[in-house]
């Protein structure tokens, strides 16, 4: 029985690609240096999978930024503002699209389905000129072949690519992106022809949009695309890979009826109903089924006995020789290798499997199904499963009782937001168009060194506290110098907004090298929620109080919300996610009330990832939004009217959940806006009334580009056209930790200048 991996993490076990990218961007290394690091990583990954016995090993899943941007490069779909003159797309154009440059902004970035991974959104229109402009897929296949590894080249499918795109600026929003199918298929044919000529026997097309609610026209486009490509597939085997959810019955029927396709990949972990669809609808004779039974999105060890049962159920439908054991999705969303974790205790470690271990699980299942079961491997797995179910550290009855009691109330503040804002204004006395930032300030090399040495017990607690106080004082003075109205302490004590809280909550475990790529060189280290969650002691009160003592201006207490902590962690899979979220919400509620008691009058509870967790199917959205929004309200339902509650959201499409955002009942929301071409403002143009404070971001912090005062003022004017003056805030899109002070200082100076310019204009217009 064959084995297959959908995709693999590309950063490297010690984030080698991250450091190589940042060195290249900073001008400290050459393109050749970057390419060498990348080639070494690819070689290691391919060899690892080959040595593990994987038959279908992916290539072209490596990326310098993301796979959708790679497809934009492949198709030569470069927006005109980047002044690309044709030919093979190089690093300058590629990274300008991803990050912007001194003269033009980056393309929009948004979340990859319901993950914390991001992609650069293609900008297309009727005048987009397509050409075969990146030969990366072919060159990487040849690279692997030269190493003695025959791979399955992976391409983002043509229909998914178009459905993930957006109309370019100036193009009617009603423009049909699928009408461009005939323009891009000739390039796909060229790529397929070159791969076939290079010796490829299989090609994988990733079409994850098939798990969404597609209309008949969209489904017909899949049929059209792969019927048109059929002649190109002669002599090749082709698999269409889906992941992240169930494939609806209509979509299942559409793709399994495609004559040109040899195999179909399904996520049987998150797609809990797909097995029933296969049983009820049948499976085409002679085709391969790539059974995604090993979770590509979480870090829990596979229940091998349960997976074998699933495979046995499929055997009767598909036949043993056409069944392939696979991961449920790319392993991009998991940490790289458990071997690098030296500080996790043995019990918890036995419950886990990172990407390298998942490769072994896939192969072990394939061998067992073929009659070569590794009894020792399966026995150890069964023991770990039993240990996790019975461990007393997983369950806390008091926490479960408190969380269960939450279900009897909707936890709303007693006073409406308009009255609260009036009470808060009397206390805070803010100007119109108040300025603030989102939370973090640049994380310097020196600051990271201090935190690292303190964790390693190389410096005393006193030295650490003094160093952090000094950094906070610096950040406070900078903000006062710029005349920002509501300050932040800059979060110098935090490496990551989720990890910091998880380290102080019960029920969490932490890794040393459990890094996962979020976008570009940005990596996060998700905590592992293995048990019931509670707060043993205050987490942020000391630092917030220190910061407030340094200024007479309002200082925000900075917290991460329960839904974001949940969505940015590896979450236990032995109870519903909402139960874990309610437990976290209770812990954050205790922290909010302690901050208020300490005299912090503005408290920000970030829910950056609330939209990210929205289910991919419409029928499941209402339930998620109900408990997610409820969880947020739990955190702050008990504060006084004069305590101003902020929240923050970024890098997702919020327009479709705007009513749920309103239902969160925050006093102020700061929300990403500038990088997405201000599409957030369109909901207000369409008549949605928003009565709370709102700060749509005025500049993109994920680009090194510094916006001018005039550019920011123009953005604020666009906001004032659809929002009331008395509710509008002025702030960047997101936190500033990834930027340098040389970028932050002029950008914030220009932001405040723009706000003051608009205040003057508004005053003179009265």
Poorly predicted ranges (pLDDT <50, ≥5 residues)?
none
* Oligomerization state: single chain
Largest sheet: 8 strands, parallel
Structural class: alpha/beta
Strand percentage: 5-15%
Straight-line distance between termini: 77 Å
What is the global morphology?
globular
What is the number of helices? Answer: 27
* Largest sheet strand order: 1-12-11-10-9-8-6-2
Number of strands: 22
How much helix is in the residues?
40-55%
Radius of gyration: 26 Å
What is the average per-residue confidence, as pLDDT, rounded to a whole number?
95
Binding site for L-methionine: 438-440, 491, 606
Active site: 702 (proton donor)
Function: Catalyzes the transfer of a methyl group from 5-methyltetrahydrofolate to homocysteine resulting in methionine formation.
Protein name: 5-methyltetrahydropteroyltriglutamate--homocysteine S-methyltransferase
